[in-house]
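Aim 2 progress. For Rhamnogalacturonase A/B/Epimerase-like pectate lyase domain-containing protein, the working sequence is reproduced below.
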Amino acid sequence: MKNMKRLLSVILCVLMSVEMSHAQTVSFNVKDYGARGNGKRLDSPAIQRAIDACHRAGGGTVIVPPGTYLSATVELKDNVTLHLEKDALILGTTDYKAYRNLDPFTEGLGIEVGWALLVAVDARNVGLTGEGTIDGQGSALKERHIKEDKRPEKDRWGLRPFLLRWVRCQGVTVKDVTLKYAGAWTSHYFQCTDVTIDRVTIRSVGVAHNDGINIDGCRHVRISHCDIVSGDDALCFKTTSSKMACSDIVVTDMKMKTNQAGIKMGTESMAPFEDIKISNCHIYDTKNGGIKLFSVDGACLRNVEISDITMDEVRTPMMFRLGSRLSVFRKQEDTKQSTGTFENVVVRNVRAVAADKAQLDPPSGILVTGVPGHYITNLTLENIHIRLLGTGTEEDARRQVPEAVDQYPEVKTFGPKIPAYGVWARHVKGLKLKNVTFELKNPDARPKIICEDGDLEIYE
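Predicted C-alpha cells for this construct:
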C-alpha cells in the first residue's frame, strides 16, 4: 500500500511538471489570430481569440509583439500569461460603452464600478509580463464620456474602466510591465491568493480615482520594486467584502508619488487587515497623507508593521483612524457590521519632510483617533523624525476637533486646525512613542503632543 501511494505521488508530480513545462513553452502570437497592431481598429477580438486558443490547449503564453493594439475588454483564462514584448502597446479605446463589467461592486463613495480593460475572473495561474505597456487613455476617455453622459460627475465616473482587474484568482503574476492613464483605478486585485507584483511601473494621472495598486481582500501577496506615480492612492489595501481578509502581505522597495496617499489601508474596510509588512519605501510629493491606516466599516486592523520609510514633501505624514462609518459595498452578499478594532500596529524608522502647504493649516505630523468607546490599541511609533513648517498660534492650540464618528475617513474631516503640531491622539490605549522627534522651521505655539481620552507612554 505504501509503495502504491509513493507511485501515485510520483505520477502526480510528473504530471504537474509536464503541465507547468507545457504552460511555459507553448506560445500563441496575437497576429496569428488577426491582430494588426496598427492602432486603427479594435484588436481585442483577435487578442481574445489567441487567449482562448491558448486556454483550450492547456495554457501557455500569448505573445503581443511590437505595435499598437486598440482594445476594449480582454479576459484572461486559466494557465494563460499575456506577454507584452518591448514596444508593444495595448491602447484602451475611448469608447467607454465598449467595456464589460464582469464583477460589479460599489466603491467607497457609493458608485457602482468594475468595468475593465484586462480582466480575469475565477482563474488559476494567470499573468501579465513583459516590457510593453498598457495605456487606458483616461483623459481622452473622460472627455468623450462627459460629452455623451450629461449626469453629474459624481454619478457617471464609475462607468470608466479600470486598467487591470483580477477577481477571485489563484496564482497571479504581474511583472515588468508599464501601466498608464487608467480611466479609473489602475489595478484591482479582489479576493486573490498567491499574488506576485514585481518591477511594475505605473504612470496614471489625469482623471480622478486613478489609484495605483489596490489589494482588496487578498492573501499571500508579494509586492516589490514598483515605481508608482498616481492621481489617487498609490498603494491601497481595501476589503470591499467581509468574506476575505487582506492577510500575509509583504511589500518592499517601492517608490510612490501621488495626489492622495502613499500607503493606505481602507477606505473600504469590512474584512480584516492582518499580518502585513511594508518596508523600504520612498514616498514623495503627495497631496494628501504619507501613511494612512483606517478601519471604518467593521474591519479588524491588526498585526501590521511598517518600517524604513522616507517621505519628502508629504502633506500630513501619518494618520490612524478607527471609525464607525459602517458602509456596505456588495449589498447582495453583505450586511452592515458593527465597529471594528485597530490593534498591534508598529511604525518604525521613518524620516519625513512634511509639505508646508497641507490639508491642515498649519500642518501637523501625526493624527491618531478612535471614536468614543472604541479605542486604537497598542499602536507603537518608534524612531520617527518629522520636519514641519510650524507657525501654529495659541488660538490654534485651543481648537476642538470634531468626532466625525460616521464620516468618510480623511485628514480634512478633522481640520483645518489641529491643536498639536506633532502628535494629536484621541481615544487610544497603549499608545507608545519611542524616540519620536519633530523639527520646526518656525516657532509653533501649539503643544508637541496632545492625548485626549487615552493612555500614552513616551520613551526618549
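The CA atoms of residues 89 and 440 lie 47 Å apart. This observation will guide construct design in the next reporting period.
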